[in-house]
Amino acid sequence: xxxxxxFMGTRAPMYLDIVGIFFGILPxxxxxxxxxxxxxxxxxxxxxxxIIFVLTLVFVVIFETGxxxxxxxxxxxxESPVNYTFFITFLIIHVLVAIAxxxxxxYQLITSVKAYRKGELKVGTGQRHKKIARxxxxxxxxxxxxxxxIYYFLFIM
Length: 157
What we know:
By secondary structure, the protein is mainly α. The chain is built from 5 helices and no strands. The longest helix has about 35 residues, at about 85-115.
């Protein structure tokens, strides 16, 4: 089932369609979590961010496991008309942005939990937190957009 054809009508296997759907709803999950912070419910914001972060890790593990079991990107690129050099360059940039975003998100979550436990994270404070959050949202959107591009290159073109 994991490697059976997916449900989105492309050449992609099921696991990639499932992962793709999660990353498609991730911005909405982030939006609802951010609304908690805007409304002043810091605890719900923190808990929802932790849940979203863990879910994201689970889906990344599913993605990475599936890719390894399928033979990696090289197994999929053979069926794509995309120039190999272009694709690898695009993929490297995608991975670098994704890793940087993940590291920044990890930092933000860990420092926020520590500040919350010390009573230092309050409504209306944390300009640094807000600045990092904006960078994180941009990183998440760029990573998702690049992922959509990779999916298109490998399974739709």
